[in-house]
Amino acid sequence: MFHFYAVLSRMKYINRWGLMRNTREENLCEHSFETAVIAHALAVLRNTRFGGNVNPERAALLALYHDATEILTGDLPTPVKYYNPEIRSAYAEVEKTARKKLLSLLPADLKPGYEAILAANGESDRKLLPLVKAADKLSAVIKCMEEKGAGNSEFAKAEVALRQAVADMHLPEADCFVEEFLPSYQLTLDEQD
């Protein structure tokens, strides 16, 4: 008996934004789905508008699994995770151990396929990882926008910092997403018609 998929299904129990007051909890499963959709969109934008040649489906897959280790580690808040180089390095080791544990939950013949997803270190993946990182941050921006829209000012500074982090990535695909698609997230369903 192998537990990999059952453990992955527990993403829905890992809540994000633990240090902040939320009007609506966001779990890791929701975040991973949204990040995958956005990563796919960024890859499509790169190929369609910016002369790229990347695999949008692979971008979506990498994004879908980008936080899978948090099933075992929990969601360590960003201010803690990046507080100093020692903590950052220690957390990288914790993530590496969690990746190994997740892979140990698979039969031997399936491990290589998932190791390539969880480690994401191939040449083509290195081209996609900045898009996944941008999608991760954009998903967080969307959460901040939703919270602000619900009257929760707790997320105002986080939104400013995350928008700046996306801009600092200098990815034309991400800038395009921010300009053309992000404003819609502030609208009601009727306004999106």
From TrEMBL:
* SMART domains (alphabetical): HDc
Q: Which Pfam families match?
A: YfbR-like (PF12917)
Could you confirm whether the keyword Calcium appears in this record?
no
The entry lists its GO molecular-function terms as: 5'-deoxynucleotidase activity
Domain called HD/PDEase: residue spans = 24-150
Q: What is its EC number?
A: 3.1.3.89
Q: What are the UniProt keywords, alphabetically?
A: Hydrolase
Q: Name one GO cellular component term.
A: cytoplasm
Question: Entry's InterPro entries?
Answer: HD/PDEase_dom (IPR003607), YfbR/HDDC2 (IPR039356)
Query: Which protein, by its recorded name, is this?
Result: 5'-deoxynucleotidase YfbR
Its organism's taxonomic lineage begins at: Bacteria, Bacillati, Bacillota, Clostridia, Eubacteriales
